[in-house]
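1st attempt posting a full record on here, be nice pls
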Amino acid sequence: MADRTGYTATTLSDVAFDDVQLSLAGINLMLNNGFREAESIFLKYKNYSPLMSGGYSFVCFLNAIMSFEEDKMEFAMVALKETEKMCTVKKAEKSLRVKIFGNNSNTKKTLLPITLEDRLQRLVIYADCQLYMSMIIFSRFEISGFMKGGWLIRKAFKLYERIYNEIAAVYKDRFGQDITHPNQTKLPESETVPVDDDANSNDGTENLENLDFSDITEESLGRLKGAVSFGFGLLQLCISMMPPNVLKLVNMFGFHGDKEFGLTCLEEASRSTDMKAPLAMLSLLWYHTVVRPFFGIDGSNTEHCIREAKEILEVNEVKYSQSALVMFYRGRVQKLECNLEESLKTYNEAYDLAVEQREIQLICLYEIGWCSIIKLNWEEGLLAFARLKEDSRWSKCYYAYLTGVCQGALGQLETAQEMFKEVPKLSKRKNNQLEAFVIRKSNKFKKKLPTKPAAILMVIEIVYLWRALPSCSQETLDTMIETLDNATLTLEEQALCRMLKGALHQQMGSKEAAMQNYEDAMAYAVQGCEDPYVAPYCSFELGMLLTEKPSTASRGKALILRAKENYKDFDFENRLNVRVHAALQQLEGID
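the predicted structure (as tokens):
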């Protein structure tokens, strides 16, 4: 039963429920398209227990992070701070004392200790709040918030680490299982993480050492392990993928990342009875269907991520057969398999199911647009991106750019030019690489009409940059190469054209032709190129191809290092740095 230290005195004896089961049921209801019903359940019981408060604030957070609407972000921050306050251990002990003894002055100094299980649960939820608040801060792309967001993540990371290590020690004692993080760093005894605004409180993680876990059942211990594994694993995974320049800053904050350990944590969390088990499952699907192919973590091979994602989907088929969000990831798998017709069918079905979840409808519409342009279906792509430009509050200038290139590819050149002129006016984010890119590309057409070949070149460019070429059919790849071969382009556009031809030949398995085009692109880039990212990207792509043969692996690695060290301040530099970082880890044995 729930610990009722969050109840008001009048409701203490009136309500009895299992908050563990109810919170998990609420999250499952949300995933099965019952967003409003789930929100209603969590809202009703949010003051009754930390778990229900945590569930409510998570629903608010998810609503905010998917919509990017400022009022929803502010509302989520308020909800998270309320949960944070409820989960402060000292306040919980004081609350329990007042409920039993009242405000009698003779008992004011008496704090009734809450159970160890509840203490750990509160600390995990407290850490979750720090993580979610940092994500909201980072999503605003404000430089002033980076330090605050970094500090919140640091608090979350250290709390997760200490709680996980304590539970790992108990698992080793009871069951002989060693689940300790293999590369963990032990904090100095003097370093603690505050979990209360009161500097004189003893609510920090210094109280997590030498605790008596004997009263915690195996079932509760497993749930707590799953609860802490979600946030700890997610952070480990995200930090492990950061490029070296960002990683140095992250290490200054005192945390580290391990991809395999992070994935293990998320898998453990997904099998638990904690309310975050479904969220861990979604995080794994996100990693396998979005992150791995987008950053090219497995190179051009998508078989592994497809297999991993399919296994997760099969295990959860019965439980989430009609879930729009799970269906979205099923569509991602079908897209990775180049089965675009089935993918479009799945996205449209998910769109229809997400009646109460506008944000899920928008991400489905985005994928419908992408599947359309991958098929060179400019009309359907135009319809999807034009609607996103009007309905989505996330990067309207990006959607305007995609609308413009589809119009140009259709030959609607005057309309496309007007759309490109609108792109800079719609930008609201400073220092954002995506918006800087589409603004720079759109500004070419302030005073001149785009041409149809130039518009198609821009479409193929963004398909390449978004690493969507593996989803293209052989027929589509042939059409793209034929279009580029016949296009009349300026000298400044030649470097980009050759790079894209190289990527197309590489996707088709013509590696010699691909390498020749990458070399030609780098030569054109020296003569003059309006896209400064072409040279470093070609250096990386050519280097990766050369590393496939032992005889040229050394030269290939040198080109990859050149892409990292010889070029700065180009479009999507961080994306390339992530790929370089992953590649160099795999090439550690090559001189």
